[in-house]
Structures are given as C-alpha cells and as structure tokens.
Design a protein that fits this description.
The complex is a heterodimer of chains A (744) and B (156).
Chain A: H1 23-28, E1 43-49, E2 55-61, E3 70-73, E4 97-98, E5 104-110, H2 113-121, E6 124-129, H3 136-141, E7 153-161, H4 164-170, E8 173-181, E9 193-199, E10 202-207, H5 212-223, E11 229-234, H6 247-262, E12 266-269, H7 272-278, E13 285-293, E14 299-309, H8 317-326, E15 336-344, H9 359-376, H10 381-388, H11 408-419, H12 421-428, E16 435-448, H13 454-458, E17 461-466, E18 472-475, H14 485-497, E19 504-505, H15 525-543, E20 550-555, E21 564-565, E22 570-571, E23 576-589, E24 595-605, H16 612-631, E25 637-638, E26 641-642, E27 661-666, H17 683-686, H18 688-700, E28 706-707, H19 711-723
Parallel strand pairs in A: 1-12, 8-28, 10-11, 14-15, 18-19, 24-27
Antiparallel strand pairs in A: 1-5, 2-4, 2-6, 3-5, 7-15, 8-13, 9-10, 9-12, 13-14, 16-23, 17-18, 17-20, 21-22, 23-24, 25-26
Helix pairs in contact in A: 5-6, 8-9, 9-10, 9-18, 14-15, 16-18
Chain B: E1 2-7, E2 10-15, H1 22-29, E3 48-51, E4 54-57, E5 70-72, H2 74-77, H3 81-92, H4 102-115, H5 121-128, H6 139-151
Parallel strand pairs in B: 1-5
Antiparallel strand pairs in B: 1-2, 3-4, 3-5
Classes of the chains: A alpha+beta (744), B alpha+beta (156).
Chain lengths: 744, 156
C-alpha cells in the first residue's frame, strides 16, 4: 500500500467553484445532443397519435407507402407491449383502446424526415368513442367506467400519527382550508429524442434521458427479455427536470422495435408541440385540511386529504403521492395527524415526475394553510410558523426522527432582515391605491433520496476504475442534464483521493460500462451516489498502487439507524432532509391583475455545497421554475386536449420576468453525505409558490387558494369581494374554496 | 434553386428549396449542428444565428432570404476573440447548464455588444428576451453579459 503520488489538493475547499467540464463544448456548439447524431442508413420516425381522449380504434387506414417506408405498431412488439415501470399498465403503442389525446398509436418510419411526417399526417384512424373521464370531478363522480382497476384509483394510502379523534375532541378551534394546483410542463429546451441502432445480436439506444437503467429495462421488455443485448447510452441532455425520468422509456422501446423491424438505425425526435401535448406533466392536485388548535392556539391535530390527477397511466404516480403525503404537514410539529391520499385516473396526458415530485403541491397547500391560520388568529405568520417548526429530536409526520440540526429559525431571521419582512408585512396589509404590495414567506424541506423503501430496493451500485496511468474513471449511471453532476461528482472523488481534478474522468453513462447506480432523480445524485463515490475513493486511496489498474465497487445501504415500515408508512421516510426559506415581494396592479415580482430572497440548507456556483445555478434555476409554477405556467386540459401546445401559449419566465434573486446557503453538514452534502436539486423549487401566493394574497386582500395565480383569477377574486356574491362565471373547480378567510 | 451566401466568412453555393428554413439547411445540408432546434416556431431562440450582424431565429427564415447575405453561426463565431471573451464570461458566471440554449444565447449577447458595448441591465434583458433558458434562472446569464462587457477589449 502506497499513498497516491499526486497529493496536490484541487482547491482548499470543495465548495470553491471550478469551471464546468462540459461548458466549453456547450458554448462552442460542439456538444452532441441526440438530434445532432446522424448515422449512415438512419431512418426517421414520426408518431401517429390518438385524437380522442377515450375510444376504441375501429380501423386504421394508411396512405400508399413508398418503398422504404413502413409502420410500427403494437403487434410489431416482440416482447411485452408495456413500459416497465412501477406498474406495467402503460403500453408503448395503443392496442385497441386509446386513453388520452396524444397517445401513440403507430410510428411511420422512412428514410426522409419530411416525407415520413407527411405520410404520418395522412394516416386515418377511425374510432368508436367511449365515455371519457375528463377531470378530477368526472373521476370523483364515477359515472364513466374505470380506467384503472375497479375504483379508478392508481394508488390510495393513509397514515396516522398520534390520536386524531382525541385531538378533535380536545380542540378549541377548528380551521378548514382547501387548495388546488395545476399541471406544469417541464419545457426543457431540448425536446425528447432517441436513436436506436441495431447490430448483430445487439441493440444500442442513444437518448436524452435521466435514467439509463430504467430505459434499459423498458427496452428489454419491449424487444423480449434475453433476446438481444441491450445497451443504453445517454447523450448530452438539454434539460430534464423529471420529464426525462419516465418518458424516454416509451420512446426508446418504440425506436428499438422499429430498428429491429427494419434492421436499420431509427431516430425518433419529438416536435415541440408533440413534446408538450404528449409527455408527462406535474400532477394537478386538490388538498384539503381540517386542523385543530388547542387553547394556546397551537397546532394540535390535522387531517389532510390529498387528491392527485394522474392522467391516463399510472407511471410514477404512486410514489409522487407518497412524497406529497410525507410533505402534507410541512415542516411542522403536529402531534395528531391523519393523512389520506389518492391518485385518480383520467383520460388526460399522463402525469409523472417533475422536480419536487409531489412536494411542491403539498408545500403550497400547507404553507398557505399555516399562513391563513396565523392571520385568522391575528398573529405574525413567520412567528407562528417558527413556533411550530420541527427541531432536532422531534418526530416527523411518519414518526421518523429529526436527527440533524434544523436551522430554519436563523435562516428565516437572516432572510427577514435582508428583506425587511416584518416592517413590510405590517405596512402592506393596509395598502392603498391601484398598485398594492405584498410580502410572503414560506418554510419547506425536501427529503433527500428516494421516498420510503426506494433506496433499499434499488441498491445503487457505483464503480471507480483506476487506469494504469493513474487517472480515475467514475462509473455511475447518474446523468448530467445541466444540473452539474459532471462538475460535482468528480470534485468529490478528486478531493477524497487528493489528486487533481483533471485526473478524474466521468463520461455520459453507457450501460455496457457503468453499473446501475440508480436513476438521476430524487435529489439523490450528490448525497447518495456522491456518498458512495467518496467511500470508494477513500478505499482506493488506502489501497492505491501507482501504475496498476484497480477497480472498486460500492453498493448503497441506508445508515443502520434508518428504519422504515412501508406497510404503515412509519419511520424515516428519507435518510435526511434539506431545508429552505423563501421570501417574495410582489406588486399587484388591481386594475389589470398583473403581478410584478419585486424580489426573491432565499436561504437553503443543503448540508454543504459541493460547488458554490453549481449550487447557485440550482438555487436560481429552481426558483425560476417555482416562480413560473406560481404565476405564469398555466396548462389547461379541456375535453382531454392540452390547450397550450406551443411555447408562445405556455409562458415560462423570460429575462423580462425574472426579478433579482438573493440566494444563499447555510453550512449544516450531514454525517453520511459526502463532505456533509445533502440534496439540492428539487428543494429550490418547492417553497417558491407559497411565498408568492402569500404575497399576492396580502396585496389583494383576498384569498389565494390556487396556483398559478393568474391575472384573471386575481380580478375575479377582487370582483367577488366587491360584489360579495358568487360569481357565476367561475367554474366549480376554480371557485374560491378557502374558508378560513372568507371574510377578508 | 442555386443559392449563394456568405456563411462563417466563406461563400457557399447550395442547390436547395429557397423556402426551406435556414435552420434545416444549416443542420441537415451543412451538418452545422451547433445551431439548435428547440421549437421550430421562433419562440425559444435556440436556433439564433447572425444574419448581416443581426440576431435572427433561423427556424423562421427561409434560406432564400439570405441570398448574398452574411450568415454567422456558432461554428464561425467561435473562431473569434469576441467568442472567447463571451465563452469565458458564460463559464465564470455560471450561465451554462444544460447548454442547449447556449450557442444562441452567446450569439444574442454578441449581437447586443456589437451595437452597444456597454449595455445596462435593462438593455441586456431586452436583447436576450427572445432566448429562453429553463435551467439557470436567467440572472446568471445577465451577469455573464455584464462581465463580458465590463472586461471590454473584445472586438465585438
């Protein structure tokens, strides 16, 4: 055993920013995204999609196909026509029934992209309509036959803590509140795409993706287990945000089958309109609270009911629901708690993973609820929230132990000083005139790593390969999709080994080379995958022999103190939590309903930053997406059809919209994270919407119980207050449901 | 139809449909894949190129409209000192994440700095407003352009 020859440290502190290794190629335009790949003999595929929300396909008529063109459909699938996910209900191609508008029915494949698209547009599908379930209300009414199982419910769970009936009897006050949230579209700048290349006995699928091994399993299921060696290679990925967690499995399976059928490479790249209309979205939600207060106005008990709209196929919905449920009581100590949740099936575009994964819906609701309780009691929202915030040693909603220090009070205090929160909070309540200001605050956490038993089930495995030249290759399935994995993971390894960063190599994953370290999701890459890499690197350092090839593998297991009962949802739902505080100041034009965001202040506890600049990118980017979710990103599905199918209709924040953002982090290292790191990717989005909504609520003096908070909604609320009578124009699902402040 | 124009300081002559979008000609006929297709409708700016020094969404421009004009894509621009200055500033300011918007964003910044070497923040935001970025939260890109402008000295 010898120490490494190179002991130069790559920087004094791992947090010191380094240049992104992928920046040069991305600036120069030499980074190769999926659509930039062309291989000899490559064919182009175009999808023919359902135009009906729920129907039986009675016939399909193809135009004459020129030589070299062909179609691929369900009956061409040699394996199983089901995407391998949590529950195998989602077909690669519709069989006799379509369940949402935009559902793929067949591919037209041919040598020229334009001709392929032209032929696809001339395919005629005839349908016999079936009674659709077009909304959560339809699903609740239960008039149409179920889409899934007998109860049309993808998942239903409940869990208890304490004795809620007892709390109900002992309570001095009861407060009811209800909130709803809409769809959100990822709108990564690079549309989804895959390229399947068949070779003798082998099938390689290149693609823009988060989770190479999810894709591998899906393709293996499509082409038949064991019949072909399936290899998945991630290409440079132009943003994902959860949207490339589930859907690439579908595209890869389709392209793989087309490639096998033709014996030629097949590329399938979605148009923007297809991508918006057909790929997964954030689940719309309705969340209702009945909360019981004791004689000191403190939280005694809470009954939470969560309803998510899962769309046509189950996908990842059951786990999204679990994460929403474990966030339902927020960062608060609630002694007696009951949480019930359901995801219902509707004939709409399937809902799936999106940064936050159920938590943004839940935190919007719980934060507004606490805000409303405090205001109703005549108390300062911040003070009331901090009075009930979890502290080290407290029990979480699932009776897990809060092991780490909770630094929310000092984070909030620091932020409120910077924002002038107390003075503004007091002053803005009595606003006058056309332009009204408001300031809002939220507290949130995000469980780091998979929910519940996920990490134990997946047992992520990583490898380090030391070459003879003493360079070290990181072999993980974790993908760089913009978030900075290729910056952060090499730093963790370099700092652990004490060798220069340029001696560490980390290529986009290729499943022929890298073990399954799990999907790139759940804010787990730095904490879980990075943690394994650090252990492996320390091991490598101990056994380092210069000039020799060495291989080290590590598999994740929770630290021994983590206990979880999946059946009863009891114990540590996550190994650790990251925390956030957001303050948002807005100005609302009461005449137009337009909201101008003055400034956002945010503080996060992500354990320890692995790269200050990368972390800032996560903070600013997550905040921007959260702001869009709160104010602008309205995606409606009417009669099963996505109404905003273009970027011009679906408005993400632009340079003209983004306010100044003052973000920072506190150092609060996690014992089992690499260099103290916890998760950071999702946390930064989660708390924005409630802070925005609270600010708007203060500015307009009317309840804000749904997001996005559009100008139309603001004007309706103001008008309702003036006329003090129900507004017949408001559809039932968007009518004011907040009852706690109905008098304001 | 024969179409002649100057592309990245070299004359090109192509036999193409004059109504084909410049973006498709660049990517498919000429293999210049640094120009990205984000929407194909002129909404995202990922396909931005310079035509006669002005920023243009190449997905909306028929190639016939650039006859005898000067087209600069990232492949040509990256040969310049101005590019070096901008790429450094983008990297240092954390303006690059997924990178799909980056070539278009750099060209948008170049088009601005060419006509206004010391833009204020409002001018930067207005100049980049046609280019979307979903990763960075945008303010870090504004800072990158400010950094590049502040360092000056580049032949914009």
């Amino acid at each position: 055993m010898k120490p490494p020859e190179h002991t130069a440290t790559p920087g004094n502190d791992i947090a010191d920013p380094v240049a992104r290794p992928d920046a040069a190629a991305k600036c120069a335009g030499t980074a190769r995204y999926l659509a930039d790949l062309a291989v000899p003999g490559m064919l182009h595929a175009r999808t023919v999609r359902s135009t009906r929300p729920r129907a039986r396909i009675t016939s399909r008529r193809l135009p004459p196909l020129p030589a070299g063109f062909f179609v691929v459909e369900a009956r061409d699938i040699p394996g199983r026509n089901r995407i391998r996910m949590l529950d195998d209900d989602w077909p690669f191609f519709a069989e006799d029934i379509v369940n949402h508008i935009g559902e793929p029915i067949l591919l037209v494949v041919g040598p020229e992209a334009e001709a392929t698209a032209m032929i696809a547009s001339r395919v005629i599908i005839e349908y016999e309509d079936l009674p659709p379930i077009l909304s959560l209300d339809d699903a609740l009414a239960g008039l149409a036959p179920p889409l899934y199982g007998e109860d049309n419910c993808f998942a239903e769970y409940s869990f208890h803590k304490g004795d809620l009936p007892q709390a109900r009897r002992a309570a001095r006050q009861m407060v009811k509140d209800g909130f709803s949230t809409g769809f959100q579209e990822h709108l990564y700048l690079e549309p989804q795409g895959v390229l399947a290349v068949p070779e003798a006995g082998r099938l390689t699928v290149y693609g823009s993706m988060q989770c190479p091994y999810y894709v591998k399993k899906a393709v293996e299921q499509a082409v038949g287990e064991g019949r072909h060696h399936v290899r998945i290679v991630q290409t440079v990925t132009g943003g994902a945000f959860g949207g490339k967690e589930d859907y690439p499995s579908l595209l890869a399976g389709q392209a793989a089958v087309a490639a096998l059928k033709s014996g030629r490479p097949v590329r399938l790249v979605l148009d923007r309109t297809e991508d918006i209309a057909a790929t997964t979205k954030r689940h719309p939600s309705r969340i209702d609270f009945t909360t019981f207060l004791d004689e000191n106005d403190d939280l005694l008990g809470m009954d939470v009911d969560i309803l998510l709209d899962g769309g046509a196929y189950s996908g990842l919905s059951s786990v999204v629901l679990q994460r929403a449920m474990f966030a339902a009581s927020g960062v608060y100590r609630v002694p007696h708690l009951h949480v019930h949740g359901r995801v219902l099936a509707t004939n709409q575009v399937p809902a799936g993973a999106f940064r936050g994964f159920g938590a943004p819906q839940a935190f919007f609701a719980i934060e507004m609820h606490l805000e409303n309780i405090a205001l109703r009691l005549g108390l300062d929202p911040l003070e009331y929230k901090l009075r009930h915030a979890l502290r080290r040693g407290d029990r979480t909603c699932t009776d897990g132990l809060v092991r780490g220090a909770v630094r929310l009070p000092e984070m909030a205090t620091r932020l409120c000083e910077a924002a002038g929160y107390p003075a503004k909070q007091a002053a803005y309540t009595a606003g006058q005139g056309r332009y009204r200001r408001g300031i809002g605050l939220s507290l949130c956490y995000h469980g780091c790593g998979f929910t519940g038993q996920g990490e134990e089930l997946i047992q992520g495995t990583i490898a380090l390969h030391k070459r003879a030249d003493d360079a070290v290759e990181i072999r993980v399935a974790a993908t760089e999709m913009g978030q900075g994995a290729q910056t952060v993971l090499p730093k963790i390894v370099a700092h652990s080994l004490g060798i220069p960063l340029d001696q560490i190599h980390y290529e986009n994953p290729d499943t022929d080379i890298v073990p399954d370290s799990g999907p790139t999701v759940a804010s787990r890459t730095t904490m879980i995958v990075g943690g394994l890499l650090r252990e492996a690197a320390l091991d490598l350092k101990r056994h380092w022999q210069s000039g020799r090839v060495m291989d080290i593998r590590r598999t994740y297991h929770h630290p021994p103190h983590i206990h979880w009962d999946q059946e009863h949802f009891r114990g540590d739902a996550y190994p650790e939590y990251a925390w956030g505080v957001n303050v948002v100041e807005v100005e609302v034009d009461l005449l137009t309903g337009l909201v101008r965001v003055i400034k956002i202040w945010a503080q996060f506890d992500v354990g320890a930053p692995m790269d200050e600049r990368t972390l800032r990118g996560q903070m600013e980017g997550g905040i921007a997406q959260g702001l869009g979710y709160a104010l602008w990103e309205k995606l409606e599905v009417d009669d099963g059809r996505v109404q905003q199918q273009r970027i011009r209709d679906y408005t993400i924040p632009t340079f003209m919209d983004m306010p100044p953002v003052e973000s920072g982090s506190v150092y609060n290292p996690y014992e089992f994270g690499p260099f103290g790191a916890k998760g950071a990717g999702e946390l930064t989005l989660v708390g924005v919407a409630p802070a925005v909504a609270a600010a708007v609520q203060q500015a307009i003096g009317c309840p804000v119980d749904m997001i996005p908070v559009t100008p139309e909604m603001i004007l309706r609320r103001i008008r309702n207050r003036k006329h003090a009578k129900p507004d017949s124009e408001i559809p039932p699902e968007s009518s004011p449901r907040s009852r706690s402040r109905a008098d304001t | 139809m024969q179409i002649t124009f100057e592309l990245n300081n070299e004359t090109v002559c192509l036999d193409v449909d004059p109504l084909r979008p410049l973006l498709d000609v660049l990517r498919e006929e000429l293999g210049l894949t640094g120009t990205k297709r984000g929407c194909g409708e002129g909404e995202c700016g990922a396909c931005a190129v310079l035509v006669n020094d002005r920023l243009v969404n190449s997905c909306l421009l028929p190639v016939g409209a650039v006859v005898h004009g000067r087209v600069m894509t990232i492949e040509g621009f990256r040969q310049t000192g101005a590019y070096q200055r901008l790429a450094e500033a983008f990297t240092e300011a954390g303006a690059v994440q997924c990178g799909f918007c980056t070539p278009g964003m750099i060209l948008a910044a170049a088009a601005l700095l060419r006509r206004n070497s010391q833009p204020d923040e409002t001018e930067i935001r207005a100049a980049l407003a046609g280019n979307l970025c979903r990763c960075t939260g945008l303010n870090m890109i504004v800072e990158a352009v400010q950094l590049a402008a502040r360092r000056g000295g580049a032949p914009w």
